[in-house]
Each structure stands twice: as C-alpha cells, then as structure tokens.
C-alpha cells in the first residue's frame, strides 16, 4: 500500500539547506501576474529590484526554484503517483518580512494522515529558518491523494472559515494568462499536470490546469493590493482550501471582507457560474 500511517505520522525529511535570490523573488511575482501595470509604483515593489518587497506566499516556492525534475511525494510510509495527487489546502505563517535574498534551512514532517474514504490527505508541516537560526516561516499543506483512502484511519475535521453574512467589501477581477501555468512552473513545480495535455487527460482533466499555489498566490496578492495598499510587510498568515481547478486563461473573481486585521475571502471563476476555486481562505495582518 502506498501509505502506511503508522510509519508516516511524525516522519521527518532530512533538513534541506536552500538559498534564494532577488531573481527568484522577481520570477515568482511575475508568475503571479505582477507588473501588469509597469507604471504603478506598487507593482514595481513586486517586479523591480530597487525596492523589492516579498509576498509571504513566496514561502511555498522559496526552496524549489532550482528544481529540474517533476516533484515526488515521498516520505517514510508515503509514496504517491503524481497523477493521483492534488493540493488540498495551504497555510503560510511568517515571523516577519521575508528578505529579498538569503540562505536557510527547511525541515518538513508529516503531522497527519487522514482517511477520507475514497482518498487520503497527508498533512505536511515545514519550518524554515535563516542560517543563524532566526525563524522565517511555517507552512502546512494538505496533499489530497485520490484512491488512497479506506485504510481505516481517522477522518479528521475540516475547519471552516465562513465569510460574514453580508456583501463583500471588495470584488476584484483577476485575469490569468493562457501561459500562466508555463510561467509558474519555472518557480519549481514541474508536475506535468500543468503542462502536458496527455498527462492532464489521464488525470481526469480536459487540459492542463493552473497550479493551485499559483491561484493561492494571486489571491493573496490581489487582497494585499486592495486592502493593504500592497504593503506585504503587514501580512502574518494566509490560509486557503483548494476547491476546484482553474484553466489558464480564465478570469478569477476575488471577494474580500474587511474585519480589521482579518480578511476572509473567496475565489471563483465567473465564466463557470461562479465555480469556487479557493474557499476557507483568510489573510491575517498585524
């Protein structure tokens, strides 16, 4: 069996040293659509090195930009086929502004293996720190493995983040480019699901889909720009659940509610009857 919960839970990967440069940050931001208006000084904070600010969701790719092979989902007790793997949810919490360049160490471990019946969810927590030990960020991701459930494990709970029962304070239309996935994969996620039509068909999709983490980063940027005047240094965390795929070229609609230091949001695709693609999402600030 590809998953052995008794072995997997608590399993740690060896510490991984990594580094990133301003070019890595710039590429990440551009892959999210930053710089679409190159005359906007707020956009240049993302897309020009002279006053570069780092969107905290960069933490999801910071250790990956020099990856040249498709990713493997492998821990002790876990080995999964990429064709059956989807991103379930993502959390990023930062301990302060991320430097525009640096060196660090990341440590990852499996904290939960949940049995959803027809699928399994492997929850992986990763911490990152600078070489001197200063904490950078903590991420938690849920890896949804189709066809791997039914092993008798705990189902777990699915915490919900419900927006206020009123109209959103802001509605934002965010375009995606037809080549958006081909750009974003240069940040390190080379899963062929996002590039190869034949692989996408074999995985149950009509065409390659956008990386969930690209949608995640675009939503965080849109909310930051609209609600925080693009001040990424105020962000403390961003959490979201992936509810549906996005085809590159589709337009996203980001609805944001203002609750002071919390900004619940949802992301839908209007062209598909407001099909949800991100739910249970909240941006938290200082």
From TrEMBL:
Biological process terms in GO annotation: fatty acid beta-oxidation
Cited InterPro entries: HotDog_dom_sf, MaoC-like_dom, MFE-2_N
Signal peptide: none
Pfam families in the cross-refs: MaoC_dehydratas, MFE-2_hydrat-2_N
Domain of life (superkingdom): Bacteria
UniProt GO MF annotations: (3S)-3-hydroxyacyl-CoA dehydrogenase (NAD+) activity; 17-beta-hydroxysteroid dehydrogenase (NAD+) activity; enoyl-CoA hydratase activity
Gene3D superfamilies: Hotdog Thioesterase
Stretches for region Disordered: 148-167
Residues of the Peroxisomal multifunctional enzyme type 2-like N-terminal domain: 18-147
UniProt domain MaoC-like: residue ranges: 164-261
Family label: Belongs to the enoyl-CoA hydratase/isomerase family.
Descriptive protein name: 3-alpha,7-alpha, 12-alpha-trihydroxy-5-beta-cholest-24-enoyl-CoA hydratase
Protein source organism: Amycolatopsis antarctica
